[in-house]
Amino acid sequence: MSTTPNPFAALLDPAGVLSACARSGALDALPVSVRRSADRVSTQVAGELAEHDAAVDQIYQQMIAKASKTSLAKSKGAVRAQEA
């Protein structure tokens, strides 16, 4: 039985994506200003991304703290139930 290669597998490999783009010639058809615009990150976007990452980290830390308190309370309750 022959298998059909997964066309989306290349998307998981950044080198594969770049290689496919280079082979297609589509990037070469674009003006240089368009090709290079993705390489430049504006300071405003970088700042927004940093703020977002900090907010996600804060939420993550809060969830970890809440989960550890919940599991600690459950384990204390289990110990008390076993002692009774």
Describe the 3D structure.
It is elongated and about 75 Å long. The protein folds into two domains: 9-40, no CATH class; 42-84. It is mostly helical. The chain contains four helices and no strands. Helices cover 74% and strands 0% of the residues.
From the structure above, extract its key features.
mainly alpha, elongated, single chain, 4 helices, 84 residues
Structural class: mainly alpha
Termini gap? 62 Å
Number of helices: 4
Helix content: over 70%
Indicate the proportion of strand residues: under 5%
One letter per element, helices H and strands E, the order comes to HHHH
Compact overview of the structure:
The protein is mainly α.
Helix and strand layout, with pairings?
Elements: H1 14-24, H2 26-29, H3 32-37, H4 43-83
